[in-house]
From TrEMBL:
Keywords, ordered alphabetically: Coiled coil
Domain HTH merR-type: 6-63
InterPro entries: DNA-bd_dom_put_sf, MerR-type_HTH_dom
GO biological process: regulation of DNA-templated transcription
Full protein name: HTH merR-type domain-containing protein
Domain of life of the native organism: Bacteria
A Pfam family this chain is assigned to: MerR_1
Gene Ontology terms for molecular function: DNA binding
Coiled-coil features, chain-numbered ranges: 132-166
Length: 196
């Protein structure tokens, strides 16, 4: 049998504070293989990998539901039968039909808990997907609006360029006419201008 580890030993091995490991333990105890009760609780070496996975998830800012989903995919879930149904333990060593009913009820309630937990995860994922879809829709609308604005700016620039070209051509024509009129006035003699 492999040596059991305390929170302190796991903390030293992973470089994670003991208080943080206790917090992880309290949130995800179902995934941590352990033996003992209370302060005497010790963890099997396999729990180190579970603690690492939890720490990585927390480091990536995942919420507890997402981390639990990751753990559920990668690790076995441990259920303390004593906590699940204390009524099934009786002081006598005899096995009765009542014990069988209590155990069946405990397993049914655990199955329902697992089912409801799965449904809660699915519901939260559906909600997240709906939010993502709404965000994508908004982004698409904004991109279309941006494209329309760019097209409008391009049209306005072309119009401005045409109008400026026409304006400069008109000014140029008027200046040439004014210069030509001035030239023709200078060519006429004093008497031609006077009697004209």
């Amino acid at each position: 049998m492999s040596e059991l580890l305390s929170i302190k030993e796991i903390s030293q091995e992973l470089g994670i504070p003991q208080s943080t490991l206790r917090y992880y333990r309290d949130l995800f105890m179902d995934y941590l293989p352990a033996a003992g009760e209370g302060k005497k609780k010790r963890f099997y070496p396999e729990a180190v990998v579970v603690f690492q996975t939890i720490a990585k998830g927390m480091h990536k800012n995942k919420n507890a539901d997402d981390i639990a989903s990751d753990l559920n995919q990668r690790f076995t879930r441990f259920i303390d039968v004593n906590e699940a149904d204390e009524k099934t333990q009786e002081s006598s060593a005899t096995y009765s039909q009542n014990d069988e009913i209590h155990q069946s009820q405990a397993l049914t309630s655990l199955t329902q808990l697992d089912g409801s937990a799965i449904m809660a995860v699915i519901a939260s994922q559906n909600q997240a997907l709906q939010q993502i879809a709404a965000t994508v829709s908004i982004v698409n609308e904004q991109q279309e609006e941006l494209h329309n604005l760019k097209q409008e700016v391009t049209n306005l620039e072309e119009r401005l360029e045409r109008e400026l070209t026409n304006h400069f051509q008109l000014v140029d024509t008027q200046l040439r006419q004014a210069i030509e009129q001035r030239e023709t006035r200078k060519l006429k003699s004093f008497w031609q201008r006077l009697f004209a």
